[in-house]
Task: structure prediction
Amino acid sequence: MLSTRWQPWSGMQHEMDRLRSEMDRLFTGSAPRRTAGLAGAVYPPLNVWEDSGNLYVEAELPGMEQEDLEIFVVGHQLTVKGERREPVSEQGTWYRRERGYGKFSRTVELPSEIDADRVSAAFKLGVLTITLPKLPEVQPRRIEVCSE
Result:
């Protein structure tokens, strides 16, 4: 007798991945590309935050070299591109290779207008920090309240 067990969640992983990709595209303006060997992870992981004068983007890029990175600002979008090179082992045999490699491109929609001419970036200990100064007209301005 042949027995089949009902598994309601089998086959759903593909649908969940498709839904996550569509949500990424919807909320970021474009779907982030995925790096080879990263098992579907969005790369690089980013933090985006702001203070009254600047937006900041921090990207984790361990093992990368500064010259392998490109940063572009066009309108309200920031793009970080690069390539993590495939590790080469002249001797020995690989038993596990979980660290991803290959080309990547990540574009994020910026929440406010920035002064593209004053954008700066620093790369230290595998963390890329991009400082995006806000345009003066979008910065908060304190309004003095006068009594009559």
The beta strands are 46-50, 54-60, 69-74, 77-84, 102-109, 120-124, 127-133. The first strand starts at residue 46 and ends at 50. The CA atoms of residues 27 and 127 lie 24 Å apart. The chain has one helix and seven strands.
